Amino acid sequence: HFLFQGIYGYPIEIQALFFMALRCALALLKPDAEGKEFIERIVKRLHALSYHMRGYFWLDFQQLNDIYRYKTEEYSHTAVNKFNVIPDSIPDWVFDFMPCRGGYFIGNVSPARMDFRWFALGNCVAILSSLATPEQSVAIMDLIESRWEELVGEMPLKICYPAIESHEWRI
After folding, report:
1. CA separation for the pair 161, 151 (Å, rounded)
2. Which residues lie closer than 8 Å to 40 by C-beta, 6 or more apart?
3. Residue 12 burial (CB < 10 Å; 0-12/13-18/19+)?
């Protein structure tokens, strides 16, 4: 049952792990009469999930500029701003953090709000599972290289940037 729940509202780590689990399930199923239905359903879910994640969770310099120029309160099926994100909600740090070459999957997307934070686990699992396209995989690694001081420095790769602090950390 959990296999066919929706794809909206979950953070990047959960989405990437779910994508990987679906790919593993696909590799383990036999294409016999019993497995064929599950295989078809998994293929359909993988397609929908990859489309959603690659289109709506991906952020690079071009996408950041596009979001900054979004019109708000667009509600038709042709709306560019599907989640009605207010450009003023983009945190200032994102403009300094985003290199000209590179990109990453943001933390989460929900109506009127995007979590622009960088999460290492979700982005690395997106590469490992092929949720990220080859171009996106290269862009994630380019971002890590460009922002080495912020993301790595003298320690292992930071799990979140900017760091979660105070009350946000507790919840």
Report:
1. 7
2. none
3. buried
Q: How far is it, in rounded angstroms, from Cα 108 to Cα 148?
A: 23
136 vs 126: CA distance, rounded Å:
9
Could you read off the pLDDT of 19-57 as tens digits, one per residue? 999 999 999 999 898 889 999 999 999 999 999 899 889
49, 147 Cβ separation under 8 angstroms: no
Q: Rounded CA gap, 46 and 19, in Å?
A: 7
pLDDT digits (tens, 9 = 90+) for 92-126: 899 899 998 999 999 988 765 778 899 999 999 99
Q: Report d(CA 137, CA 131) in Å as an integer.
A: 9
pTM of the model: 0.81
Domain boundaries, the chain: 2-170
